[in-house]
Structures are given as C-alpha cells and as structure tokens.
Design a protein that fits this description.
about 775 residues, 4 domains, 20-stranded antiparallel sheet, about 40% helix, globular, disordered N terminus
Length: about 775
C-alpha cells in the first residue's frame, strides 16, 4: 500500500507541464456555473518539499505509522495487503497513475443552463412545501380550500371513530399525502422546469493511451454488469461526440417507472375530476418517463470528460479549437480575470446571474408570509374587513422582507501563486450587501495596532429601514388588538394582554425613540469592527478548573464602533440602562413571582482609562477569572464592547495598524478590511493545547480532575509527553502560514475583494 502511495506521489511530482486555464477557454459561454482547480501537482511539490513538511515527516509517531502500514501490507491475509496486491496489477496500476495525472494540473466542473431551470423548480417546490406547512396539516390542505382546489383529495380525518391515536396517525398520513400532492401540482404547472441538470467534469491528461485503455476496460465492465438487468441490456454504447470517443451508460426512465406509478397511485388522485388536475399530473408523469439519465466518459483532445445529464447534446457546445464557438473566457463577467490569466492560476469559479437569482428566489420568502393567510388558525370569525386588513399587512411584511434581501448577481473568483504565497480576487457584481466604500476606514486605527485578527466594514445607513420596522411592529400590534384579542375567550389571557399593553408596550415605544433619536445618530458613518486578541493572561480560567503551570492567553472578541457624538452616545446608554430598570419594575407588576424579591439590576463599575472611561460588570458567583468583566469603554471617537476592560481601553487609543499592513493597502477608500497574524494565533493556542492534553490525561486516568492540583508535567506519561511534543511541532510547522489580509472596494459595477496569504517556509533543520 505504501509503495502504491509513493508511486502515485512520484507520478504527481514528475512532469512539469504548464497548466491551461482550467477549461475556461473551452467551456461554453452560456455556462451557468464553472469551477476549476489548477496546479495541484505544483502545489503538492511545494508542500512535500518544504522544511515544514519534513519536520512533521520526521516525527517518531509519523515514522511508526508509516512503518506499521508497510508491515500490514506485507502481512498475508491483511486487508491492506489485499488492496495493495489488487492495485499492483498492471491494469490497476495504470488506472491509479492515470487518476493521479488527471488531477495533477488542470480540472474543471461546469453546469449547463439546464441547472438554472432545475434550481428554479427546486425553489418553487420548497416554497410550496413551506406554504403547505404554514397551512397547518390535513384540515388546511384537504377539501375545497386546500391545495388550491386540487380535486380528489381525501379529506382530513374527522375523528368519528373515537380513537384519538388512530385519528392522529390518519391525520399525519393525510398531511404527508397532501404535501406530496401539492408538490406534484407545482411540478405539473412547471413542466418546462422538469429537467435533468447537465453537469460536465474535465481533466487534463498527459496519458491519452492509458485513458483509451481504461475506457475500453470500463466499457467491458459496464457491459457485463448491465447484462444482469433486462432493462439495461442496451445501456452501454460507444459514441463519437465533440470530436472525442465516449463510453455512454444510459439508464432509461422505464427502470423506475413502475415505482413512480405506484407512488402516485397511493396518493389517491381522482382521475375523474372535472377540472383536469389529474390530467396535469399525467402530463408530469409523461415528462418524467421521457427523462433518461445518460452518463458518459470519454477523451476529447487531451482531456478526459465526464458528463451527466439527459443526453450528450450539450457536449457539442464545447468551444474546442477550430470550432468557431466562443468559450466562457469571452463572457463579459470574465473580463476582470483576463489581466491575470498569465499568472500561476490555482483556482477559478464563476456563477451566472441567472443561476444566482434562481438560487435566491424571493418568491420563497414571500410564499412563507402569504401562506399564512391560508392557515386554518385565521378562520376564526374574521370579518371581511379583518381579513382584508390582515392580507394587506402580510403583503407589506413580505414586501419589506423581499426588499431587505440581498439582490443576487453574477460572481467571479480566482486565485494564483505569487512569490510570497497565494493571492486572489472575488468579484460580486452590484452591491447586494449595501457596503459603503467611499472613503478610508478610519476605524482601522482603533483595532489595537497589532491584534491577532480583525475585520472592519462600513455599511450604508438606512434610517428608513428602522422606521419601517417600528411601523410594521406597531401595525401588527394594532391589528392583534382589533381582530385577534376579541377572539380570545380566556379571561386570564385577556388580563395578561391588558397588563402587557399597560406596562411593556410604552417601554417598547421608548426603546424605539432612544435608538432612533439618540443612539443611531451618535454613531459615525456605519462602520463596525471586530477585534480578536489575547493581551490578558490567566493561570486558572474558572475556580473549578486546575491551575496551569504556564500563563494561558485569555481570548477576547471586541466590538468597536466609531462615534460622531460621544456625549449623546453616553446619554443614550444611560437611557437604555434606565429602561432596563423600568422593564424589571414592569415585569414585577405583571407577575410578582417573575423577578426575585429585592432584585435590582447590578450597577456597573466605572473606571478611568487612557482615552476615556470604562463601565464593566463583575460576574459575581460565576467563578470565572476576575479579569473577565463584560462592559463598554467610551472615548471621544469610539466605543468598545468587550469582556476584558483592559482590552477595551487599548482599543480606544489610535494606533498605527501593523497586522496585515504589509499585504494590503488599508489607507485607500475601502468598504471592508480584515487580517490575521497566524503565528501569533498559533502561539496563543499552544498553551491551551498543553493544558487540554494534561487535563484529558488526568480525567482519563482518575475519572475526575482535582481543581486544587496544578496541571504540570507530573500529569504526563511518556506517551502523553510525546503527544504534547508532537502537537507543538505540528503547530510550529503551521507557522509557515504567516499572515492573511483582505480589502474590499465598491464601484458602480461590482464589490471586489482582493486578498493575500503570506507563506514562508521554516528554516532547514540543522
């Protein structure tokens, strides 16, 4: 087995042909989706020839594992030996070498436009299924009002037999049957979308003769297997397509037709219904019976092509040399890639606008809301006026949700090797996320200078969205009081709603006012930052955990917000704290037992820090390290929410950004920026890895861990010591990944993210 693996590796490491462009030149220009992986051989060589890999390879545990595999391969009757013997057969060795060659330099996958239609059908079926769920079971699905009048449906069980358990089971069966009929109805109404999606894989090979030999072998094996099933007797054939030779396996629809017909018959559809719904389902079945699955594999030029779909017609669209057809590379969406195509490309991906739109159909979301109007729960003495108002409200909510959803569009991404590591771009046409890249991100000066990692972005302000949310909530409450509350017969529930109206609703209005008039205006230009760092350390995270023999970095994830008016921000926070106190009082008035007697919200501890003031809460009784105190620090230009007050204070002060600065231009106008210092993250992980290894060792040995006994090397057995040392070596090797940085810009055409990863090999072992 080991010999086989090494042989495959040798095959990968051999020839150094220059890869193409991942098939982007020959894939049809109307492809719905495309993905390519290139230079796997080159990347493999970079890894296995690195000092970092050699360091891991020399570990005693790795050496023993490889030796054990070799011993098992040589042991008679061992499964690994049997597999190795099978692979050593010349024809199998040839197949293994061919597979290694096929993935070495240039592979791709693309989806034909038929995938767009298929995905649209999936979305419609999903919306129908969600609508059926909203309608609430057999009672809402059956009868004249269910399924949009689909005839012949068995009605919901009325419980006349008096057996509640049987009734429940029957109702569940009806639910499943009615949902299935709903899906059939939707599919029957969209016959043009009922297709088999066409997918094509391509693999460049330098071994065409081996490919032809393996095709002949595959043809013989497939023919032999097909002869055992009468319906597949003629399934295997040879065909000439796109100038290549293909082995095809056709699985006719008649193979599954009996099962399909039986499943539909069990649903109890009335074929004598007058409105033709049964005929529509018959058309659907006829459509399905005409969909044969065709699997083909062949050799076109220097590429092994694998196709799955309902035919091979789409392969005639390949933009092969001399065909005169245009490849995907000529599509306008690929224009940003063209200036980079001469680089050492490692990956390309593209999604068409049509496919993106099909995968995020707003109708699915709208259907979830509009289906509420068919819910039997609404059939409760509603007047025409009430139903009209509710429908208007639901339509309003559906429209708001649809408007808030990101607008799908075409996307492109590609990556390449450079002298320092990897680099890449991603293009998303339009600005579906609502980012604002009109000016530099000033918040980058308040992430601490050298954090382990950070991400900062700026969103476009949309005050109207909050106003719409508040108005929608108010309208929903008004409709509930007008049309829902009168239908509640329970006096206790009526009283609870009245108490809620008296004590809580005014507080909700006050909350909206504070946010809209004070908090939101006090924030500056829509920026938000997230910072990860480990400046503080502890030896005991929790009082019930044993102490470590070395300091453990305390991770902190901070939220940073820029301020336009620090005084107004403080006022808004004070108002929110007062509102919290008022909510406690309101809850106590509504239900004296809901809040412990004498309980008052804790007062934060205020401290002066460099650049401002901090308010933090002691987690009394939590047993955590005393340094962990959730709170907020406020300066003149920024506010920081953090669980470590010391970290919050550091972020208030302006500092020159160093993390990732060598890999990105953070000074230009940006909509987003992010970076990570990987070696320092690994250094923060290492002490915790040691602690967890020792903790697990003691727990496994003693069944419990004494919180008063520090975890030191005394907890380690020789085997555990080796594991700890090996983990340290692997983590140190991972430091070859030095840093990562990304910057996002927004133009009138697209949202573009440019990223870089720095990889620097370890020094050679002495």
């Amino acid at each position: 087995m080991l010999a086989t693996v090494l042989a495959a590796a040798a095959s990968l490491a051999s020839a150094q042909e220059k890869p193409g462009l991942g098939g982007v030149e020959i894939v049809p220009a109307d492809a719905a989706y495309f993905s390519a992986t290139l230079r796997i051989r080159e990347q493999y060589d970079l890894i296995v020839n690195s000092n970092a890999f050699a360091t891991i390879r020399r570990l005693p545990a790795v050496t023993r594992a490889l030796a054990s595999l070799d011993d098992q391969r040589m042991t008679p009757g061992n499964p690994l030996g049997m597999v190795d013997g099978f692979l050593q057969a010349p024809e199998n060795q040839q197949a293994l070498d061919l597979l290694a060659d096929m993935v070495a330099t240039d592979t791709f996958l693309y989806a034909e436009p038929s995938c767009i239609r298929f995905l649209r059908l999936v979305q419609k079926l999903q919306a129908a299924q969600q609508g059926a769920a909203f309608r609430g079971g057999a009672g809402g699905l059956g009868g004249a009002g269910g399924l949009g009048g689909l005839p012949g449906l068995p009605g919901g069980n009325d419980g006349a037999d008096g057996d509640d358990a049987d009734d429940a089971a029957d109702d569940e069966d009806d639910d499943e049957r009615n949902q299935a009929l709903m899906l059939l109805k939707v599919a029957a109404a969209n016959l043009d979308l009922v297709v088999l999606p066409d997918l094509v894989w391509g693999f460049t090979t330098t071994k065409p003769e081996a490919a032809r030999a393996q095709l002949a072998r595959l043809e013989a094996l497939a023919t032999f297997a097909a002869q055992t099933t009468p319906d597949l007797a003629d399934a295997v054939a040879r065909k000439k397509v796109a100038g290549g030779d293909f082995v095809t396996i056709t699985i006719p629809a008649r193979v599954v037709t009996p099962q399909l017909d039986a499943a539909v018959a069990e649903l109890g559809l009335d074929e004598d219904a007058a409105d033709g719904r049964a005929a529509a389902v018959d058309k659907l079945l006829k459509r399905l019976r005409g969909l044969d699955l065709v699997i083909a594999i062949g050799l076109v030029g220097d590429r092994v092509i694998l196709s799955i779909g309902d035919s091979l017609d789409h392969l005639d669209k390949l933009a092969l040399p001399g065909s005169g057809r245009k490849g995907l590379i000529t599509h306008p969406a690929l224009a940003p890639f063209l200036p980079h195509k001469g680089k050492r490309i490692t990956g390309i991906s593209y999604t068409s606008h049509e496919l993106a739109e099909a995968g995020a159909d707003p109708a699915t979301t709208i259907g979830q809301f509009t289906a509420l109007m068919d819910n039997p729960a609404l059939d409760v003495d509603l007047s025409p006026e009430a139903r009209a108002e509710l429908k208007t409200f639901v339509a309003r909510v559906a429209d708001s949700v649809t408007q808030a959803m990101p607008k799908p569009n075409a996307s492109l991404a590609f990556s390449f090797l450079n002298d320092a590591g990897y680099e890449g771009y991603s293009w998303l046409w339009g600005n579906p996320l609502g980012l604002d890249g009109g000016q530099p991100l000033g918040l980058l000066s308040r992430v601490g200078g050298t954090p382990l990692a950070f991400a900062v972005s700026r969103m476009k302000s949309n005050p109207a969205a909050f106003a719409e949310l508040v108005a929608t909530a108010g309208e929903g409450w008004r409709l509930f009081k007008k049309h829902g509350l009168p239908n509640i017969d329970d006096d206790e529930s009526q009283e609870q709603v009245a108490d809620f109206e008296e004590h809580v609703v005014p507080l909700a209005g006050r909350l909206a006012e504070i946010l809209d008039k004070k908090l939101f205006p006090s924030l500056a230009d829509g920026q938000v930052g997230i910072v990860f760092d480990t400046a503080a350390k502890t030896r005991r995270l929790h009082e019930e955990l044993p102490e470590a023999d070395q300091p453990l970095p305390l991770p902190d994830l901070s939220l940073v917000l820029p301020l336009a008016d620090a005084a107004q921000f403080r006022t808004a926070l004070s108002d929110l704290f007062e509102l919290g106190d008022a909510l406690v009082v309101a809850m106590r008035r509504m239900d004296p037992d809901s809040v412990p007697e004498g309980y008052q919200p804790p007062e934060p501890e205020k401290t002066k820090i460099e650049g401002g003031s901090a308010w933090s809460y002691a987690l009394t009784g939590a047993g955590l390290d005393a340094q962990i105190r959730p709170g907020i620090a406020i300066g003149e230009k920024a506010a920081v929410f953090s669980i470590l007050p010391g970290q919050a204070g550091r972020l208030l002060a302006e500092k020159k950004l160093e993390t990732g600065a060598a890999l990105a231009d953070f000074a230009k106008p940006l909509a987003g920026a992010a970076a990570a210092d990987v070696p320092r993250i690994i250094d923060a992980v290492k002490p915790w890895a040691v602690y967890l290894i020792r903790y697990g060792t003691v727990l496994q040995r003693d069944g419990q861990v004494d919180a008063d006994a520090p975890l030191t090397t005394d907890a380690e057995t020789p085997e555990v010591k080796e594991i700890r040392e090996h983990v340290a070596v692997v983590l140190d090797a991972a430091k070859a990944f030095r840093a990562s940085a990304a910057e996002t810009t927004v133009s009138a055409e697209a949202t573009v993210t440019h990223w870089r990863n720095e990889i620097r090999d370890l020094p050679a072992a002495k």
